[in-house]
Amino acid sequence: MSTDPTATADSPFRAEPGDRDLAPQFVLPLVVRIERAAPPARTDALETAARAVLVILADGRSHGDGEWARAMRDWQDARIRKVVRRARGAEWRRAEALPGITVTGKTAEVRVFPPVPLDGWPKDLARLQVSGTDLDDPEPPPAADPAGPVLWLSPGLDMSAGKAMAQAGHGAQLAWWELDDGQRAAWRDAGFPLAVRTADPARWERLTAGGLPVVRDAGFTEIAPGSCTVVADHPALRR
Question: What is the pLDDT confidence band of residue 145, given thresholds at 50, 70 and 90?
Fold first, then answer.
């Protein structure tokens, strides 16, 4: 695996087939807790999912001889797939019993698990629903702090909350890959602060032309292949 996957022609997010498609395919599972009586706010769920991806990327078990390191390497050598499923009640408790990390936001709980083969999900995760993961914000989210990292969503795409959570995770991962070790450590030590917001069309045009990491979806679900979904606007990457 390249130390800088975004610099190679065979990007894990490109729409066209490449060498990554020849490798065994893995997926990073994320499960969001959605209780009927108290669903999380949409923006908080997106931000919590993005932080969950960063947390597992930075975890010591994902590196060197760590227990998740092989799965993380295999996943990052192939297509970078993330799938968000939803759980409540006993489903959530069973998910929490599996190896993984739970990340908590203001209203959201997201558990991220080490990658699994595309067709080899643990049964307690495989039975969880993918479709129908949609959420609302009770109030419009405040403006993002311009001094902090922002994952900007495309204003021209209609994505379910589950799909948007996965895309926000992709954007966070691209930012992580672009940072040097010192910048990664600073972000980690600060608790991975970030915001997820939808850009207005004028800002989106500037962002996609500004040299920042851009997620171009492979088109497996919901949207057309090659669609630009997220721009990762980390202060350390601004030119």
Answer: very high
